[in-house]
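Lab notebook, bench 4. The sequencing result for the construct came back, and we need a structural model before the next group meeting so we can plan mutations. Quick request posted to the team channel:

Model the 3D structure of this chain.
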Amino acid sequence: MIKSDNRALYILTIAIIFFAIVSSAMGLFYMDGGRPYNFVNQYGDTIKIYGDGIYTHDSYSKALISRGTDFTILFIAIPLLIASLVYDIKRKTLKSRMLLTSVISLFTYYSTSISFGVTYNKLHLIYIVLFSVSFFSLIIAMSSIDTKTVSKYVEGTFSYRGINILLILTGISLVVAWLPDIIGSLLSNRSLELIEVYTTEITYILDMGIISPVAFICFYLLKKKDGMGFVLLEMLLIVCILIGIMLPIQTIFQLQGGIQIPFPVLITKVGIFCLLAFYALFFEIRLFKSIKA
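Done. Here's the predicted structure in token form:
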């Protein structure tokens, strides 16, 4: 079930909490009175730069998205991580360790995004440390679970048919959401439409290169009743739920900042993920109840 209580895991998790608070709070609240300005990027396009706070050198739209992310991390994800840590310290059960592992995976996703996707700023060292402690915490947390016995603790009432549908939809929807942007840029022989001042789009890489394949791998492992499949499933469910919460918040920050978002984009880029989040929440509750204490 759980190989050890891993005090190192708890110490690293506390470090994640501390550095995530610094990162998200500074990104959300720190302002230096700067103003937006226009900048011609390497592709000859005129881009509006945010010009204020931590995201001074980021594009205007990306900075608003980042501030929406910071809000979600600070007021939702961090309290969830604290609650998961306390729960695991008290219980040290398969349930508590899988929950803690899944929330840590969310912070690994978040720290990777800001480390590679945000323009260099005063928090760069904080981003690096947060990425490092999140990454190694995830490794320790996953290795602390005896995956050979996990399937024995999941009761037969758990719905595999429903979760298989969710995994397939998740794997496909991530590709459907982002692939057209890339195909369109290749066909038009120019860079991505929203590349702005960046060299690549980290979200495309993480979602299509990692999350989508993990969904299909999880589907395969669950078919074989492999314990690692349940661990990956718990991680995917938590990430899907939080992304479903995060996207509307990011959209609100964009709309308040005057960004015009076409209705079809709201449906394809936001609506799909919100629907998946509700679906994931339903199965997260079912999975949590199915795991024997």
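Residues 7-290 form one domain.
Will bring this to the meeting.
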